[in-house]
Amino acid sequence: VYDTIGGLKGEECTIS
Description:
about 15 residues, little secondary structure, about 0% helix, about 0% strand
């Protein structure tokens, strides 16, 4: 899953 709310970058984030 990629972070889209915490940062519109495309790095793997723990936020589903």
